[in-house]
């Protein structure tokens, strides 16, 4: 049976100070775009390295934020964050995995985006309780932090393994959705969130749709219905199996887990308006073979679900893409992992979201990325382009195990209103990891002038296997 647990209900059983609700604060300024931490109109790039060693603590985790510039992400202007960073709560400890999940929004509406960092391995009331840190944006970038509220720590573990931010309950304030394992797999922390104020309540959901040992493993969000408030795409594993399960939730509804709309099953997703009709569309990546997951595909697949007034547009068939789809570069081969990473953004500036797809298993896990373009009629394979480390102009060399394309991001880091392509390869250099940035043009991403950098360039230790780029955002 599914049920929703509210913070107000829990407060009745606790001391009044434990979960006291406070009135919503007034909005202070027009909200900044997500990931624009210094308010310069360019998206900044957040890179998670949850396997990083910090002060001798293995897998404590680290996050690097590289700020945008007219030429793209600029490593000379960056912020390194760990739980040992001054002003951040907690202490870096072995196995914390700080940086496993990332999200952003202008939570305190001061005109600067803030960063949410998941630390699912943090020990609290029990082992791997998990925590989420809010790091505040400012004119000089990220500084200062607080811990995100955690209402139900005895009812979940790995709190912060998935994150999303938006006005999910349509009350005018930005909320945070948090994935976890255990009886409660999804939590909603009500906004507004401020630097010093008390919390405003929240809720958690028990749901028998998911395998509780996996919980909610990935979150994305967007305005799928076109009504002005975002829905949330949830990923986990189906009950009593390790097969993918994906649903769309309207968290404005009190018992939102009773009203999940089923989506094609996958492990990651991205949301954006591909056809320019005012309804965001959903790209779901499932990189497993059908022998491992019935919803997978030969070499992996991506399914595009078009949005409509009621959520998924039931009058329009989803578009299924593999590397055997006409116009998609390459060929479907076992283990390619096409769909390991997906991102939607307007690469060529034509007003339609385009799709980047990672295939981290391509060529013995060397990896590849494909970019496909949006249009008024939807996603098209015309002009689709593939990139690897062997593409002329892309730094490096494709090597087994690099996993280039494990995560992909389309975001405007230069301020020219075109989304640039960022790609991570967490397996690069025996698990050090690395990130590439390709600037976009009116005809798509160009390898000319592309850059790459690894953990050492941005202050992250290469001891052990940091897995730089395991998380990549926006």
Structure commentary:
By secondary structure, the protein is an all-beta fold. Helices cover 3% and strands 34% of the residues. It is built from 3 helices and 33 strands. It has helices at 7-11, 362-365, 428-431; strands at residues 3-6, 45-49, 62-66, 78-81, 101-105, 114-119, 131-135, 145-147, 157-166, 175-181, 184-189, 202-206, 218-222, 231-237, 244-249, 261-263, 268-272, 281-286, 301-305, 307-308, 311-312, 319-321, 338-345, 354-359, 368-373, 380-387, 407-411, 420-425, 434-438, 440-441, 444-445, 451-453, 471-473. A hairpin with a 6-residue loop joins strand 14 (231-237) and strand 15 (244-249). The longest helix is centred in the first third of the chain and has 5 residues, at 7-11. It is globular and about 55 Å long. The model is unreliable at 1-28 (pLDDT under 50).
Keywords:
mainly beta, about 5% helix, about 475 residues, disordered N terminus
Largest sheet: 5 strands, antiparallel
For the termini, the CA-CA separation is 35 Å
Instruction: Name the poorly predicted regions.
Output: 1-28
What fraction, in percent, of the residue positions are helical?
Answer: under 10%
Shape: globular
Percent strand equals 25-35%
Task: Identify the strand order in the major beta sheet.
Answer: 1-12-11-10-9
Mean pLDDT: 90
How many H/I helices?
Answer: 3
What's the β-strand tally?
Answer: 33
Strand-pairing-aware structural class:
mainly beta
Instruction: Report the C-alpha radius of gyration, rounded.
Output: 21 Å
């Amino acid at each position: 049976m599914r049920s929703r647990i509210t913070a107000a209900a829990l407060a009745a059983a606790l001391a009044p100070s434990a979960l006291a609700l406070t009135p919503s604060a007034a909005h202070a300024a027009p909200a900044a775009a997500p990931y624009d931490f210094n308010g310069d109109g360019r998206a900044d790039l957040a890179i998670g390295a949850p396997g990083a060693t910090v002060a001798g603590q293995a897998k404590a985790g680290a996050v690097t934020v590289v700020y945008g510039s007219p030429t793209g992400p600029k490593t000379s202007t960056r912020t390194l964050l760990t739980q040992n960073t001054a002003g951040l709560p907690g202490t870096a400890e072995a196995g914390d995995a700080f940086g496993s999940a990332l999200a952003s929004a202008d939570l305190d509406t001061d005109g600067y985006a803030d960063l949410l960092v998941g630390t699912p391995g943090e020990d609290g009331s029990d082992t791997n309780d998990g925590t989420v840190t809010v790091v505040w944006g400012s004119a000089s970038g990220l500084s200062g932090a607080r811990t995100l509220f955690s209402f139900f720590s005895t009812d979940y573990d790995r709190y912060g393994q998935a994150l999303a931010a938006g006005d999910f309950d349509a009350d005018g304030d930005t909320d945070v959705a948090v994935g976890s394992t255990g009886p409660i797999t999804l939590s909603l922390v009500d906004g507004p969130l401020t630097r010093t104020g008390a919390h405003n309540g929240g809720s958690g959901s028990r749901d028998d749709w998911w395998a509780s040992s996996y919980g909610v493993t990935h979150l994305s969000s967007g305005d799928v219905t076109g009504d002005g408030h975002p829905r949330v795409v949830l990923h986990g594993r189906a009950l009593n199996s390790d097969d993918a399960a994906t649903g769309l939730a309207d968290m404005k509804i009190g018992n939102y887990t009773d009203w999940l709309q089923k989506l094609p099953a996958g492990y990651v997703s991205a949301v954006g308006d591909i056809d320019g009709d005012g309804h965001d569309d959903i790209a779901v990546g499932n990189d497993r073979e059908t022998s491992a997951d019935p919803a997978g595909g030969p070499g992996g697949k991506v399914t595009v679900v078009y949005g409509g007034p009621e959520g998924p547009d039931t009058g329009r068939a989803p578009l299924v893409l593999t590397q055997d789809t006409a116009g998609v570069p390459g060929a479907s081969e076992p283990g390619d992992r096409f769909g390991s990473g997906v991102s939607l953004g307007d690469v060529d500036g034509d007003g339609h979201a385009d799709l980047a797809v990672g295939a981290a298993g391509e060529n013995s896990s060397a990896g590849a990325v494909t970019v496909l373009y949006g249009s008024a009629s939807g996603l098209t394979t015309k002009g689709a382009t593939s990139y690897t480390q062997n593409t002329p102009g892309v730094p490096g060399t494709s090597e087994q195990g690099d996993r280039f394309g494990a995560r992909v991001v389309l975001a405007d880091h230069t301020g020219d209103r075109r989304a640039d392509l960022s790609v991570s390869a967490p397996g690069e250099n025996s698990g050090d990891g690395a990130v590439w940035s390709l600037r976009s043009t009116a005809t798509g991403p160009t390898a000319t002038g592309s850059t790459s950098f690894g953990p050492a360039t941005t202050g992250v230790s290469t001891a052990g296997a940091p897995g730089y780029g395991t998380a990549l955002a926006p």
